[in-house]
Amino acid sequence: MTELAREFGFKITVIGDGGVGKTSLIQKFTNETFTKDYIKTIGAQFSVYDKEIEGDKVKLLFWDIAGQDDFNFLRPAFFKDSRAAIVVCSLEYNKLGEDSFKHIQNWVKDIFSYCGVIPVVICANKVDLVDEKKIDTTKCAELVKENNFLGYFITSAKTGQGVVEAFNSIIENLYLKYKDLKV
Known about the structure:
- This protein has 183 residues and is an alpha/beta fold.
- The chain has helices spanning 22-31, 75-79, 95-102, 104-115, 138-147, 163-178, and strands at 7-15, 44-53, 56-65, 84-90, 120-125, 151-154.
- It has a single domain (7-178), classed as P-loop containing nucleotide triphosphate hydrolases (Rossmann fold).
- The radius of gyration is 16 Å and the shape is globular.
């Protein structure tokens, strides 16, 4: 017996400090493109991506939220109705890299305060700019375990490393969570 294909729509909010590569990760996943030049996100922007899972149509709205403090007042409106979050930090050996990892908990606390506890994936981005052999994933693994996040992924928006895996993990989690609910 063949069932009719169902349609699902999920809003996934991508958050993290300014300059960590949120926009670039979304572009890499949705369009398979990478732009070298940094263009600051003003407020928020969103991208639509369609995927088929088990014959069902899944429409994904990726909301790219500006990471600069200037836009804090807008976040509650942008976080509304998010079903999941991708939190991005930078692996760079500089202040951005250090601070963006330290701020992961703040980002998660912020979105949970508006959306409740939703699935979270961490993308430790810009692996192409560091020596991958020197990356210590212990802190990231502890953070994931302590907070029951879905996982963490070492990513590069430039090379594509880990991007598809990171995004698909959260998409598949949402699909499995909602596919059997009667709508």
